[in-house]
Write a structure and sequence with these properties.
About 55% of the residues lie in helices and about 10% in strands. With about 150 residues, it is mainly alpha-helical. The protein has one domain. Strands 1-2 form a two-stranded antiparallel sheet. α3 crosses α4.
Length: about 150
């Protein structure tokens, strides 16, 4: 869920779509990308919950600027920077320990991708169509046959 719904937005939907079924996650997203995705979840979780519940009193993000809009020098708090660094170290350690996850995830994505291709081929098969030959004048020196399909 995390990779498919959060991490893909950090690295870019197009990159994810093109590479997730052929490459391991560690070769698509950097440690910083993964730590940032985790940070975004932790930073804004309560805000998103309140917005989903249509509450009038939406809390501020946990580690970033307080108040509406973007203001100069009001990015992450010092506590937020420390938390990002902790998440970076956790992701780095996790990648060293849990190497099998990348391979299993990539194999699952590849199977889903190939299954989708098989279904599309079955759906898109078109019955044989009649081919009609037409003669057109290419130049004054001669005529050329042109084959066109009528669907």
């Amino acid at each position: 869920m995390f990779c498919e719904h959060v991490l893909l937005h950090v690295i870019g939907r197009d990159v994810w779509k093109r590479m997730s079924h052929t490459h391991e996650i560690r070769n698509i997203a950097t440690i910083s990308d993964e730590a940032f995705a985790l940070f975004l979840l932790e930073n804004s979780w309560e805000v998103w919950k309140a917005m989903a519940a249509s509450l009038n009193d939406v809390p501020n993000p946990k580690y970033s600027m307080k108040g509406p809009g973007t203001k100069k020098f009001k990015g992450w708090t010092e506590e937020g920077i420390k938390r990002f660094n902790e998440l970076f170290e956790m992701v780095e350690e996790d990648r060293n320990v849990a190497k099998g996850f990348d391979v299993a995830f990539q194999q699952r994505k590849q199977a889903i991708f190939l299954e989708g291709k098989k279904k599309r081929k079955q759906i898109s098969s078109i019955p044989d169509v009649q081919v009609v030959t037409a003669r057109i004048e290419k130049s004054r020196e001669g005529l050329v046959n042109l084959r066109t399909k009528i669907i």
